[in-house]
């Protein structure tokens, strides 16, 4: 006794994942470590690489003896992107 569903495939459902992916943007983030012990994040900049000595100002002590200790990627929904970047740059 099989009740085969006769519903046609709904394109919207199949398209959700792609849509979701489209709605998110991969943001590269660099984590910087200051000699004073403070860690902070900022948006990845061209030329960044792991263990590079950066001249970013530490938000705690204000010195520029920071080293990139981590580079990673975060998927941020596009509608939160500007806020996300703003928060990142506030940290830096
Ligand atoms: Zn510092």
Which features does this protein show?
92 residues, alpha+beta, four-stranded antiparallel beta sheet, 3 helices, elongated, binds zinc ion
SSE arrangement, N to C: HHEEEEH
Number of domains: 1
DSSP helical segment count: 3
Question: Pairing-aware structural class of the strands and helices?
Answer: alpha+beta
Arithmetic mean of pLDDT: 85
> What general form does the structure show?
elongated
List low-confidence stretches: none
Give a short account of the largest sheet. Answer: 4 strands, antiparallel
Q: What hetero molecules are bound to the protein chains? A: zinc ion
How many strand elements?
4
- Fraction of residues in helices? 25-40%
Topology:
Layout lengths: L10 H4 L1 H8 E11 L4 E5 L9 E2 L11 E12 H14 L1
Antiparallel strand pairs: 1-2, 1-4, 3-4
Bound molecules: zinc ion.
Descriptive report:
With 92 residues, this protein is α+β, with helices and mostly antiparallel strands. 28% of the residues lie in helices and 33% in strands. The longest helix is centred in the C-terminal third of the chain and has 14 residues, at 78-91. The model has no long low-confidence stretch (mean pLDDT 85). Bound molecules: zinc ion (ZN).
